[in-house]
Design goal:
With about 130 residues, the chain is mainly alpha-helical. The protein folds into two domains: about 15-90, no CATH class; about 90-128. Helices cover about 85% and strands about 0% of the residues. The protein has helices spanning about 1-10, 15-30, 35-60, 70-90, 90-105, 105-125. α3 (about 35-60) runs antiparallel to α4 (about 70-90) and α5 (about 90-105) packs across α6 (about 105-125).
């Protein structure tokens, strides 16, 4: 119980002066290009998610009668739309804090996900 209380404080940690000064130095070093690159990636990903959601809605609407498959298509499209909205609104610092929070809460699952992503990226890059 005592350990949970200690770890709970980590999730709500505010950036201290060291974190903020490091971030300022990093931004100055890159000339702000990391922020614009992040915005470009964010816009591209959100646009692709939104396009996929629209396609799913269109394909699900083709059925003459509503059925389980069309309902699932519309539900999946809704998930994609919410994901696009989340991606479009997210800021780099929040991504960092959300990711750190998830890793602290679920270290084993985080390692498995990181390993799977590494394997997929390795295979994709090897093919090129």
């Amino acid at each position: 119980m005592e350990r949970k209380e200690q770890n709970a404080g980590l999730d709500n940690r505010q950036p201290d002066d060291r974190d903020q000064s490091w971030e300022r130095e990093y931004q100055a070093e890159l000339g702000g290009s990391s922020v614009s690159t992040f915005r470009q990636i964010r816009t591209t990903v959100a646009g692709k998610l939104q396009a996929a959601a629209q396609t799913l809605h269109q394909k699900a609407a083709r059925f003459d009668q509503p059925n389980d498959l069309s309902d699932f298509g519309h539900r999946a499209a809704g998930w994609l739309e919410r994901s696009a909205q989340y991606v479009n609104e997210i800021e780099p610092q929040r991504v960092k804090s959300d990711l750190a929070s998830q890793v602290r809460r679920n270290p084993g699952r985080s390692l498995l996900i990181a390993g799977a992503v590494g394997l997929v990226l390795g295979r994709l890059l090897r093919r090129r």
